[in-house]
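Ticket #4471: structure export looks truncated?
Reporter: QA, pipeline team
Priority: medium

Steps to reproduce: submit the single chain below to the structure queue and open the exported record.
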Amino acid sequence: MSEEPTADRWSDPASAGADDPGTGSSAAATPEAGTPEAGTPGADGVGEQEAAGLPDGADGAGATPVAGRRRRDPLAAFLIGVLTLLLGFAFAVQVRSTDTDQQLAGLREEDLVRILDDLSSREDRLRQEINDQRAALAQLGSSDSAAAAALAEAEERAEALGILNGTVAARGPGLEVVIRDPADRITAGVVLNAIQELRGAGAETMQIDGVRIGVSSAITGEPGALEIDGEPVEAPYTIRVIGSPEDMATALSIPGGVSAMVNQRRGDVAITPSQDVVVDALRPLDTPQYAEPAEGD
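Actual output as written to the record:
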């Protein structure tokens, strides 16, 4: 038979220590006067830390390293995330390349030929597009050059027309012709014949005294009181004309020409070739007039 446990074997050690005056347990269990109890402020420095506002489990000396370690944690997490993304991207590219190689390796010869033909066709199309773009660029460059040439030609023609109608000054080789009329017998017809002879010999533009001669110029008046386009001119009549000096001088000196007609009227003609003749008299532009409907129409 088993024996029942006795009360002495199952007794409480704390109570046993309390009954035994020789163990000194009663003194350890009972707090002495002036000694802080466990859990009270100041016991083992725990209450002091809480009273000072320090975090649990950290004293004043260890607070700064913990804060610095916490500040470094977001940067470390960011770097780890970036490295993870890079590794994932590299892994995906490698897997895709491997898959493509495996797919091509598993294709038949006819499929590979078809893929090669497609790539060749695409390359041809791209080359054709490049050639088209280059041709368009060259055309644009030539168009700009053509436009610039056309603009320059238009400006030259405008200047030539301005010289012909007398709205632009001119300078170049030509003649200076002086017609003297001491007897006042030079008529408007003689001056008009001189202008026509000079034009026929290639005259580009001219002026008589201070009046520019144009396409519609009119010489009127009586000998000694001639007018050109309504402006009075007096003898001696000085004609400055631009053109070939040799051709115009020959045209004025032909038998029965202007020189002969002036001499018959007791006048004189002096012809002086020059390589620098200035025709600076300008003609005012005529105001164009247009027909207007009459009232009631």
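Status: closed, not a bug. The export was complete when the record was re-opened. Leaving a note from the reviewer for reference: The longest strand covers residues 268-279.
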